[in-house]
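Hey all, sorry for the wall of text incoming. These are the two entities for the joint prediction.
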Amino acid sequence: MKHLLTVLLRVGRSDDERVSLLGDIEEERRARLARGSSRLAVFAWSTAEISRALLWGLRDALVRRAFAPRARFMLSWPDIKLSLRLLIRNPGLTAVSTVGIAVGIAIAAGMFGFFHANFDPTLPLEEGDRIVALENWDVAGNNENRRSLHDFVTWRDQMTSVVEISAFRETGATMRAGDFLPENVRIAAMSASGFRVARVPALVGRFLTPDDEREAAPPVVVIGYDVWQSRFGQDRGVIGQQVRLGSTQFTVVGVMPDGFAFPVNHQYWIPLRVSPSTIARGAGPELFVFGRLAPGATMASAQVELSVIGQRAAAAFPQTNATLKPQVLGYTRPIIDNQDMGLDAWVMGQLTVSLVLVIVALNVAILLYARTATRRGEIAVRTALGASRARIVTQLFVEALVLAVVPAVLGLALAQYGLELGNRLMFLDLVGGAAPFWLEQGPQPSTMLYVLVLVVVTAAIAGILPALHATRRRGGADLRQLGGSTGPRLGRMWSALIVAQVAFAVAALPAAIKLGLNEIRSSLTRPNYPVEEFVGAAVLTEIGSSAFGNRLLELRRRLQAEPDVTGVTFTGSLPQRNITGRIEVEGTSAEGAAATNGMRGVTTFGIDTEYLDVYGLRVVAGRPFNALDASATDGPVIVDISFAQRFLNGTSPVGRRMRYAARPNGQPSPWYEIVGVAENLRRNPIDPDIVGPTVLYPVAPEQLAGVSLTVRLRGSAASRMNEGFARTAHQILAAVDPALRMAELRARDQAESEDALAVRLVGLVLSCILLTVLLFSAAGVYSLMSFTVAQRRREIGIRTALGASSMDVLRSVFSRVAAQVGMGVVLGAVGAMAIAPLSNVVLAGRLAMVTPAIALTMVVVGVVAAYGPARRSLRIPPTEAVRAE
Amino acid sequence: MADYLGEFEQLILLALARLGEDAYGVTIRATLIERTKRQPSFGAIYSTLRRLEGKGLVRSFAGKPEAVRGGRAKKHVVLTPRGRAALREAHAAVVRMAEGVSLK
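and here's what came out:
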């Protein structure tokens, strides 16, 4: 994160030096990329360079303050060699620690990287940190209000601390040029001054000028480098050529350079033409307003000026502006929608996540502790030979450091994978797909740095804590024990640790297992129709148009006439019926209604009359929709079998009425009559209950401005798409009306796999956590248990010498095991009950067995761990066991 | 008294003398790489420059932010007269020491 990097690079140097240093590294980085060095090599170089800069700063600061005239702490090669040897000699310990630390680091670094990328990132533009966004915040609704055309004009005319104030709005159209397949493209309708804010000149031709914004000016478009390359073969003669966007011909006047995607991720720019004289205050398109801080101005001073302007507007136009507070924000804030997130929230979140790693480190410390304790003899010898305590602690720290390095690399890789999934999901949702121009690809130096800090902290906890404890006692006693077999006795502390380990596993694991299982089961949900025959697309009317009218029916008719097409249907949502909330079915008990207040909601959308036929879903009771239903005011609905099972225990809902219960701030919806029951659209082979209930209502084209179009084809949709169905569909669309737009035209099974992204990400994180907790609990109990029993060797030997039978000894060992594990199970069960209401996880049905199963696992692990050392002790001749004293 | 100069300090002052007005982190480093075949890190260069500035042998001023540098300003560095004198003295000392010594 740049904040962390900024703070760290400040050590030992002034602000302007830090800025210049980072600038140098950036300049050199770009130069290397331009010379054709691989991204990986350049990345490695810049990471190393930043690390060295940090070390130099630290060294200078230390030298200046005379804290450390000579470095005391040294990484010595023999220490590292010894550590590596120990890792190989204890493969179990190494494996468990590696997995644990890797997962801990992956979670922390993934989160860090995500915030770094999305929390006030530096814009890769000249003085990018001085580009700001201006936005009206509606304090009544606690959300942004972007219908701010009039305020935009006021701000632009009156503000002095922010200059070049510009606006853009996102629009889209079908792009047609030459022989290419028509494509739905995203367009930035932007003030001409927006280009001056970015301070990037056009590569060919010119960018937009204020003249282009006039209502009467000829339509012009500036295109991005990627479009220029893919559509125009980098032809410099592109200037003056015609491009059709929707139903309008635009003349290309300029090409922007490679990498330019300002304001977000755009490749087409047209002038923003909105006139306040024709649009009422508080109406009009949603605008994103931005500008540059004037020389000398700061965010704070700009905010002061803007607030004054906002207060004047609130007084002059109380109807529209009374609750609006204009804000000066970091440029990316309104786009990423994290306007109100403060640095403190970020730091708190990051600290919490880092805590995961502290817990992991404590677990590793416990494992290492067992090993360190067995090495007391070695430590005593080294102390006797003159090693200082610091020297020995350093060596144990280095051992932990070496142990943490490989998992750190693994964790970083894992974090990067998760991060890319997360960013893809987020930008798909927020900005329609392509990554925004400020997003840096690949692992960032700051994340590496954070991981470095984590590694050192982990090693400090896992290495130094046990080391301090192990070196606390004087060496003489340990030396004396060298020849004997007793070793240290750690009685109560070990017992407490075992109890805590078991309790934690029993308390925390069931909830995690339940979440994980749910996730796995959900991912098995499959479509209940031959998905491979389906093609889906979004079809939208031109910007500003309200509804399709007959055009949608015409589109359906023409598509149906194609030889490969077996069915065409559309679905859409009406705002007034797009309600979520508790479902109430008339005439059912209150309990039945309350039962829906769970995690799985009810899916609701509008369908045309063809929908059920095209998907091949049978109506099992009642009737399908007819042409008149869409116009009926009380709107009949069709529910699926899952709905009937969930809310009516399987009795027929036909003829009953349902509605959405009131939410805190509103009225309940009207009652809708259920006229039919259809088969479920999806099914889950393991758990049919996991398929959420669906409510379908009828829609007609005159009510909609955008629909999801579904076409069912003969045979494989993917291969039909390859054979040119996409082109056919676009041609048909253009023939119906060139102003209509079609986006995301894809075979449905492809789209399905993209939808699975989110599930994969959640599954990845959950299964990692699950695995780690399970592994650590078992390994911790095992190592502690076998260690404590091994400590009792002498006692066992003496007992055997005094005539105790093997059974007696084993009984004594296992009764202690039983007591410790038993106490842990009881505490854990109490803990589980305590956290159940908080974590909202109720273990019912077969899952009720999870807690006892985990308890049993812990008992088995404890018994197995104790059995080995106990048997070994029994085999030793009593004389040998007693000889030690 | 004359200012004592370390070897790396001398190299950097020579680079400044060579670069004149155009001296900043990237060009200084490039000059050092080209003529000494070393690969000094920016951290080391800045650390040395700061020390030299503390001794009054160089002075620095901030330039304009540039897009190629991610919108960051350069820190230009120039030799002060005192720095030039120190460099001359250090170089003369090396020449005097080397006089009549065969390094073959």
